[in-house]
Amino acid sequence: MNESDRSHVLRQLFKTSFLISASTSGGYTIVSVMKDIFVNRYQWLSEEEMLDLLSIAQATPGAIAINTSVLVGYHMAGIAGGLLTMLGTVLPPLVIMSIVATCYGFFADNQILRFVMKGMQAGVCALLISVTLDLFLNLTKQKSVLSYLLLILSFIIVRYTEISILYLALFCAIAGIVKVLLLKKAGAE
């Protein structure tokens, strides 16, 4: 890739991550929008690549929106891409939160703003369901008994115990590594 193409890609990554972050409410809602734009609109990633990056982002400490954008940026354009997508994702909420903190008294007592926030909850819920469904459908394509067992076991642990999600993610990662190693060993014999 020549310098002009690289500059264009970096500008596009920053601009896209900035606009996504500025137009969504963050968290898991941003992931659905990222997937739609990076996979469907620009076709920068395949659906499988996006879901792989999302899986890594979920297992990594920190905000899911920032982790995902950094991984996409890095995948597309190396360290500079990761840094620019991180900056593009962080700037809008940083500016918004600075304004909210400055004007907290007005926002805290504004009844209309409270109604707007309540109304947004339904949209956020729909986006979370969309991301969850995409992950589940990708899992079912794999037709892996281990994946199904990990899904069910993870759900039960998260829902009914106080075990840290960090330990659960670590356990699932180790199970995946063991599966890959056993498959490689079986293929070598």
What are the defining features of this structure?
single chain; 189 residues; mainly alpha; 2 domains; 8 helices; 87% helix; 0% strand
Beta-strand share of residues: under 5%
Radius of gyration: 19 Å
Shape: globular
Q: By helix and strand content, what is the structural category? A: mainly alpha
The ordered H/E elements are HHHHHHHH
Largest sheet: none
Helix residue percentage? over 70%
Mean pLDDT, to the nearest integer, reads: 85
N- to C-terminal distance: 41 Å
Number-wise, the strands total 0
| Tally of alpha and pi helices | 8
Multimerization state: single chain
Domain unit count: 2
| Uncertain runs | none
Task: Describe, in plain words, how this protein is organized in 3D.
The protein has 189 residues and is mainly α. It contains 8 helices and no strands. The protein has helices at 3-23, 27-41, 47-59, 64-102, 104-108, 111-142, 145-160, 165-188. The mean pLDDT is 85. 87% of the residues lie in helices and 0% in strands.
Layout of helices and strands, plus pairs?
Layout: H1 3-23, H2 27-41, H3 47-59, H4 64-102, H5 104-108, H6 111-142, H7 145-160, H8 165-188
In summary, what is this structure?
With 189 residues, the chain is mostly helical.
